[in-house]
Amino acid sequence: MIKNINAKPILSIIQLSCSYYNQQINENIQFSPFSKYFIISIFCVYILNFAQRKQKKIFIQFKRDGIQFLQNQGIDAYKQTRVQKRVGRKVTSTNIYLKLLIKLYKFLARRTDSAFNKTVLRRLQQANKTRFPISVSRLVKQLATAKDKNQTLVIVGTVTDDIRLLTLPKLNVVALRFTEGARKRILAAGGKTWTFDQLAQKNPTGSGVLLLRGPRVREAQKYFGRGAGLPGSHTKPKVAHTERRGKGAR
Question: Whole-prediction pTM value?
Answer without folding.
Answer: 0.62
